[in-house]
Amino acid sequence: MNEKEKEYLNNNLYMPSNISTQKEIVSGIGAKEMKYFMYLISISLIICTVISIFINIQLGITIGVAMIIFSYFLVVKNPSNNYSTVSQIIGIYNYLKKQNRYKYKYIEWWEKYLDE
User: Fold this and answer.
1) How far apart are the first and last CA of the chain?
2) Long-range interactions of 62-68: CB distance < 8 A, separation 24+
3) Closest residue by Cα to residue 45 from 53, 27, 77, 30
4) CA–CA dist 88, 78 (Å, integer)
5) pLDDT in tens, 41-75
6) Which of 24, 25, 42, 52 is buried most deeply by CB count within 10 Å?
7) pLDDT band at 116 (very low <50, low <70, confident <90, very high)
8) Quick check: pTM over 0.70?
9) What contacts 34, CB < 8 A, 6 or more positions away?
10) Domain residues of the chain, as ranges?
């Protein structure tokens, strides 16, 4: 090995992929994702209770279990980018909320005479 190859091997920083920078409670779910998971479970339990009271107990339990499983897949992080679907949706919402909203519409000078 020549001098340049040795220097390259010594100075090259290796960053492994699929490693989380935060402490995870379960594989793919950290503290923030667990908070979102608890919110989704509470919403699904409310919906499950309403369905089981007014329609049918078995249908309510089935829908509740399906919603809890679906909410797990919403909050688990994607290993390629370390973001969950819920955090991406919340990020999109916050981005759109911060955008400037213009209350006027630009028209050409001749367009205002079209209605006359």
Assistant:
1) 84
2) 67/40, 67/43, 68/40, 68/41, 68/44
3) 53
4) 11
5) 898 889 888 888 888 888 888 888 898 888 888 88
6) 52
7) low
8) no
9) 25, 26, 75
10) 22-87
